[in-house]
Each structure stands twice: as C-alpha cells, then as structure tokens.
C-alpha cells in the first residue's frame, strides 16, 4: 500500500485544482506514512517534492498552517533517516533549504512557517548546547519552576488556571472550556492542600460535571475533621512527660495545651470555636458592618436634586440683592425731590 500511495502522489498536483485540497490530502498521506511505520524514504521523497516543487509556487495565506506542518514532517523524516544510518548528514544538508524557506516565509509574512522553520534551524544547535551544559538549580525543593526556580509549581498552576477562568468567555458561550478549567482548578486546589469553596459546586453549568470532585472534597473535609478531632483530645495516660496536674497547668500557661479536664482525664490542644468568643468578635462585627453597608440602597439621582435646589437658592439670592439695590436707588431719588421742594 505504501508503493501505491507513493505512486498516486508521485505526480505534481494539477495547477487548475484547489491548492488547499491537494496540500491537505498530501499532508494526510504524510501523517499516514509516519504513523504506520512505513519506509521513511517514501515519506521524505513526498514531503521533499511538496516543499521544493509545489509550495514555493503558491503564495496563499490559507496554505500557511499546512505548509508549516509539511515542513515539520519533512524535517522529521530527515531526522529518522539520519538516525537509521542510511543517509548520514541529511539533516545538515536540509539546513540550507530551511534557511531559504525561512527567508521566503518572512517576505510573504507567513508566520506559521516562519516560526516552524526557525525552530527547525536552531533545533540541532540547541540540542548540542543542552547536552553539553547543565541548567543551574536555583530551587531548594522539588516543587520549583520558572523564574530561576523560585516560584512553586503549584502556585504557578493555580495562577494560570485562575487567569484562564477570569479571561474565559461567559459560561453560556463556552461551557466546555469552563468545565475543563474548573476541573483542573479544583484538582490543583486539592493538591495544594486547600478546600475549594462550596459555592463553586452550585453553579448550574458546573454542578453536574463537578459532582465527582465535590464528593472528593466532602471526603477530604470529613477526613481532616476526624484527624483534627483525634489530635485535639488526648487521654492523659497516652501522653508522657507530665506526671502531675501542676505540670499540665504549666503547659497550659505556655500555650501548647489549651485546657485540662481532670474528671474525664483528658486534655485538649484546641479550644471550641464560636462566632461570639473574644478572638473572633471583632472580625465578625466588621464583616457584619461591611455586609450591611453593601446591602443599603441609595436613591438614584439624589445629587442632581441637591444641585437644582442650590441653583434655585442662588437665583433667589440674586433677585433679592437686585431688589435691594433697586430700592436703595429709589430712596435716594425721593430724598433729592424732597430737598427741592
């Protein structure tokens, strides 16, 4: 079948036909040859015929993604042939044609082919450089990545998924993207040791797809509560180091132990948490105050009414001042007439 396929594609495509159709079918044939483990020579000859005799004569922007893919598989075939030892130096001979095609893609503003060819040209040199050097390890832990290894991987993943959710289209337009990003975001939150907010699982678009994740979150919360309760109450006979009540009182005074129940012979390292106890009283009141301010409703355009009343008051003041001036002038004229009589 490889021989038949190569024979069918041996002739150049008809110039009168659509170039996109011919290029796409040729690309499918190349992918088939490389995926089926066919002889690399046949795929190399087919891709070489396309990049040398067909693509340079068609300057169409619709062919740019296809041309970039063909160049990639062409270089891949050359790499496989060079690794087999049947064609040594084939990759080096391909560099000159790749540089020429890169200049042509630059002039044609073919960004896809330009980026692909630039990677192919620099690939061998970059591989040699990486094989002979070692990247400095700035991170002190296994979870370090980017920026010199100083940023934890989990924080970077959390930030990227957060940006994806913030910049994503609305859920009504792209529900699939929303569901996928939120699934990964919940997984990252759990791996980072945080419990996602319960309101996230109540969103109508995410409720069904996040149901398995919600069950995992519930199981994690229950396990954490059980572990916390198990470590917060310990029997006195299970703890060594303090043989008297005075020793436990000293431990309470310095902080590790919160309270001691002599009758039940049990100590606790965690006190009961309530809303109205002194440590949480002030934050609760501040939160209640902020919520009350947010819930207030203010009348619309109230400031415009105040401006209108201020303008009316100034108008009345001007009228009163003009009347006073007019009255003073009239009084002065009457005095002059009286003197004359």
UniProtKB/TrEMBL annotation:
Gene Ontology biological process terms from the UniProt entry: regulation of protein catabolic process; ubiquitin-dependent protein catabolic process
Region (Disordered): 309-341
Record-annotated membrane-spanning stretches: none
GO molecular function: enzyme regulator activity
Pfam families: Rpn3_C, TPR_PSMD3_N
Skewed-composition ranges (Acidic residues): 326-341
Keywords: Proteasome
Family matches, as InterPro entries: CSN3, PSMD3_C, TPR_PSMD3_N
Domain of life: Eukaryota
Sequence ranges assigned to domain 26S proteasome non-ATPase regulatory subunit 3 N-terminal TPR repeats in this UniProt record: 16-216
The 26S proteasome non-ATPase regulatory subunit 3 C-terminal domain, residue ranges: 284-331
Assigned GO CC terms: proteasome regulatory particle, lid subcomplex
Amino acid composition bias (Basic and acidic residues), ranges on this chain: 309-321
Protein name (record): Uncharacterized protein
Upper lineage: Eukaryota, Fungi, Dikarya, Basidiomycota, Pucciniomycotina
């Amino acid at each position: 079948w490889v021989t038949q396929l190569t024979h069918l594609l041996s002739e150049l495509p008809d110039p009168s036909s659509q170039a996109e159709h011919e290029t796409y079918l040729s690309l499918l044939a190349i992918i088939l040859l490389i995926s089926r483990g066919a002889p690399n020579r046949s795929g190399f000859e087919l891709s070489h015929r396309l990049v040398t005799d067909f693509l340079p004569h068609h300057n169409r922007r619709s062919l740019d993604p296809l041309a970039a893919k063909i160049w990639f598989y062409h270089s891949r075939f050359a790499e496989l042939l060079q690794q087999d030892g049947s064609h040594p130096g084939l990759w080096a001979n391909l560099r000159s044609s790749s540089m020429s095609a890169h200049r042509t893609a630059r002039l044609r503003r073919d960004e896809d082919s330009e980026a692909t060819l630039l990677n192919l040209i620099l690939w061998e040199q970059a591989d040699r450089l990486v094989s002979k050097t070692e990247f400095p390890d700035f991170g002190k832990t296994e979870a370090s990545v980017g920026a010199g290894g100083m940023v934890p991987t989990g924080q970077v993943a959390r930030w990227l998924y957060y940006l994806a959710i913030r910049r994503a289209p609305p859920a009504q337009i792209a529900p699939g993207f929303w569901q996928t990003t939120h699934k990964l975001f919940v997984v990252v939150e759990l791996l980072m040791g945080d419990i996602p907010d319960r309101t996230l699982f109540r969103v109508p678009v995410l409720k069904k797809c996040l149901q398995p994740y919600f069950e995992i979150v519930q199981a994690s919360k229950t396990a954490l509560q059980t572990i916390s309760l198990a470590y917060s109450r310990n029997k006195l006979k299970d703890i060594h180091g303090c043989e008297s009540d005075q020793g436990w009182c000293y431990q309470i005074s310095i902080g590790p132990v919160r309270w001691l129940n002599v009758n039940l012979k049990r100590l606790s390292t965690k006190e009961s948490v309530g809303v109205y106890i002194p440590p949480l009283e002030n934050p609760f009141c501040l939160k209640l105050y902020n919520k009350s301010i947010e819930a207030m409703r203010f009348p619309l355009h109230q400031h415009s009414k105040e401006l209108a009343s201020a303008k009316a008051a100034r108008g009345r003041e001007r009228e009163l001042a003009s009347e006073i001036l007019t009255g003073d002038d009239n009084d002065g004229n009457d005095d002059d007439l009286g003197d004359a009589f």
